[in-house]
Amino acid sequence: MNFSSSSSKKAQTAIELLQTLQHFFAKSLEKFQGDKAEFESVSWQRDQGQHGGGTRLVAPNDAFFNRASVNFSHVHYDDLPDKKLASATALSAIVHPDNPHSPSIHLHFSWTEMRDGSGYWRMMADLNPSIKDPKFTSQFRAAIEEEAHSYFEKGLEQGDTYFYIPALDVHRGVCHFYLEGFNSGDFDQDCEMA
Question: How much is the pTM?
Fold first, then answer.
């Protein structure tokens, strides 16, 4: 990392987890490009790195994807005790294949930790195809259900609320999962689900 990170043990665990997932996901997506170039790494810093930063892994132009990036960010305020937020660590992905028969997906996983040591996860995923294919919807839903276990129905319910567009009276996409402010009380178990 070319930026500082929080001294919190939970934040450090979230950093390691989400950076590992970022690289795994980007490498998995690169396989769809054949012999095209690897994803490009673009870094940024908050306050010259004093309060964190991040890295975007971006698919090259003229490849399998119309647009794809897998983004990691971490901000912290260890040296600013008056701030209520201690740190926020996130992984988000925006994946839009060029072929309309291949569905777009959006993912977001983040750990937010407050100054008092309390914290929570946000876990979000949605499948948003141009052309609906029940097979892809079923695969996406099954993958989420396998990992979410007893939180699956709650995540679907919150996803239906979050991804609803009232002005159009429709939901964005065909399958959505969303857990806001999630903390089961077992941080290690929650990391495993993420």
Answer: 0.93
What DSSP string runs through 126-171? EEE-SS--HHHHHHHHHHHHHHHGGGHHHHHHHHHHHTEETTTTEE
Judge contact between 119 and 183, C-beta under 8 A: yes
Q: pLDDT tens digits, residue range 61-88?
A: 777 899 999 999 999 999 999 999 999 9
Instruction: Return the biggest CA–CA distance within the chain.
Output: 51
Distance CA 165, CA 55 (A): 31
Both tokens of 128, joined, read 């948003």
Per residue in 147-177, pLDDT (tens digit) is 999 999 999 999 999 999 999 999 999 999 9
